[in-house]
What does this fold into?
Amino acid sequence: MKILFVLFLVGAALAKESPLKAILRSPVETLKLYNSFKGEQQLSFHAAEDRMRFRLFRKSAEFVAEENSVEGETADFALNFFSTLTESEKQSWLGFNATGAEPNLLPQPNYGSEEEKDIPEEKLWTDEGKVTAVKSQGSCGSCWTFAGVGGLETRYAIIAGILKTFSEQEYLDCVYEGRRDGCRGGWMENCYEFSAEAGGRLAKSADYPYTKQDGDCLGSSKPDAMIAAKITGNVPVARSEQANIEALAEGSLAVAFEVTGRFYQYKSGIFKDTTCKRYPNHAVTAVGYTKEYVLVKNSWGSRWEKLDT
It folds into this structure.
């Protein structure tokens, strides 16, 4: 599952029933599906935990079956490695935390006036070879480091003509060193502030690989991969959809949104959610747009169907 918003389903939506519904009507078939799922995911639990995980699995399967039967739904949902996790375990895959950050006070632009920029109707940086492969943060709340790195990789490639894979681990180890564990969440702006204070530097991930845990800061001992450009800070984007699209036309963006319960079982299509409560909890990288969707690079591995190891 490399990207989130990827497909617009055209035409009249027809009422449908998910094949899962038939399975869930039979306790025996549901148990068979669960055992097959555990085999695919290489999961093994002791008896008491297995009963608990089965209840979570069945609840997830019921959700998937129901959502895939909704008329007019533009996304598909599926069972994946989140399907047997508790809510607390799922939240460990998030990590956006802007506590103490200054609010974005940029005014809403007066679009429709001469201020509106002339931008292309579609811009997908993936099609131009300026987006690195999807990575996995694991159950460390470090999404903010992946969004921070993703927000500069495309822009560095535009300037340098070379796509480099930069180090999330440098940010995870160094940004909050001595203050708190970076796996407990963070704010992308702090990444760029750290680099600016360190001379604009950031290592390549090959030189400073990701370990899924916060360790000692080794940034000063690793080669600086920022050769063609240096990180001097960040530029906030005004709080409007148009302002974000204009910025995205120039390069990738570090953004945050609210992951709701519906999102964990997402598989493909255009994901639309009206259940969010306006409390961002997850950071990702916006890497393109069309008339129908915004393309987003997540940090939950290349396949949600199975946990990356």
Q: What stands out?
A: Helices lie at 19-24, 27-41, 47-67, 87-91, 143-160, 168-174, 188-197, 241-248.
